[in-house]
Task: structure prediction
Amino acid sequence: MAQDEVQNITENENSKNLVKSAGLIVIVILLSKIAGFLRDVIVAKYYGASVVSDAYFYAYQIPALAIVILGGMGGPFHSATVSVFSKLIKNFKIKPNNEQKKLFNTFETFSLLIFGSIALLCFFFPHQVMKIIISQADDNLLHLASYHLKIMSPVILIGAFLGLYYGILVTYSKFLLPNIAPSMLSFGVIITLLFSKGNDDTGFYLALGTTIGAILQLLAQTPVVLKLGYCFKPCFEFFHNKNFNDILELLLPAFLSSTIGQIGIYVDIFFASGLAEGQWSAYGYANRIFQFPVGLMLSALLVPLFPLFSRLVAQKKFDEVRHYFNKGVGSLIFAGTFLMIFIFISRTDLISLALERGAFDHKAVMMVSNILFIISLSIIPYMFRDSITRIYYSFNDSKTPFLIAIGSILLKIIFNSIFTKPFGINGIAISTVLITTINATLLAFLIRKRISLAYKKFLKQVIKIIFSALIAFVVGFGFNYLFDGMIGNIFEINFILKIIKTAIVFFLTLGVYILFSYIFKVEYLADVKEKLIAKFIKKKELN
Result:
């Protein structure tokens, strides 16, 4: 068989596996996101946008650093594990050898020392830790935030296990569990709050539910990791293990880069802690609504793509790296652009339908709506930034993203200083959009030192997508405006009418978007069409 034919077969198999994995991950992540959505609905109902919710969201940023940013999916511990183990393991169908087990145990011991130290610090000195982060807060807010942090300190220790476990599971192409496990955190909060029945004016049950959820998340993954053949035994060979040194070379800059990113949030907290009650909670709700669809799309594509990038780079198949990157990012931007215009049009109705009940009133709805509008402007650069960062990691280059992140922190301080005073919490949202755009632009420019990603063809497609989106936005916004004008004059729009209006806007805007994408010959639409036709034909043949 000719070499070109073999390469085409391999490429087709990779495409099929990628699509299959992405489709399965979409379903699993969707279920996890729904669990997170239900958590937010219950939290909003019981606590609204108040001093208690502010205290919780301020305190949660430290456990989040461990369980989401560092130890979570896409974090440096997960990324370093995938990058090194995917190259080290030659046969994924057999149990790990002694070399692989020793690397696992060395890395886990190292992680426990780091996360354990932070957990102890937060348990014994929560007031001092929170005083540094929210120095502008009043005594009541500071006391509540310290109380929440102490309760949630065990979550930090759990993060030491999750990063490595996520990485091992993804390396063995077990994508389902790593993506569904985070829903355990949401279930822990939901169950605990329902048990409390709203009898909580300090946020105790909210913090306790977070800790319980993190424990459930760890318990969900441990049996599968053990079944793969990895069992933790302390190992302190930090200086005599070449494979561990390879992990450190990737991990330390990525660790610092992720920490720098979290420092950006702490910068936001510093400026927000002096604002009116509930504004930081509103920012948190808006950000999680933003992350619901964006995180779903990114995880569905990047979880299976990252190990593929690492293997292709190791094999020096740079044409295939370009192919999968441009195809993947193009599809993300195609979907993300529609999402952005739909949020612009229907965000207030969506927030009202989802959260406006109990302690979450119309004032809170409008605060969240304004913030969501601003941060949605960052959808395209956000998706591009997270995608291209995986290319850097595949080349074992985490230093470049780290240096850019350092510069971003300095800009964040400057932008927050400029925008927070005149615009309040919306100023922090404006700053975030600017930083994300600058970060993505620099990463796109500097990757040329490693690989050419053929931007010219890609940008032509993006321009077509933007024109299609603008037309769809005008149509959708016009209908939304006319609907409110006609129905609003008769009687106040109720729950059912909001659902009907939002559904019509969605399908009308989507239809116009697809129509003009077809007219402008956006190639990502053609890809979707071909896949749907192929799937239909296959089903017809089976029948």
Observations:
- Confidence is low (pLDDT under 50) at residues 1-12.
- The CA atoms of residues 138 and 274 lie 8 Å apart.
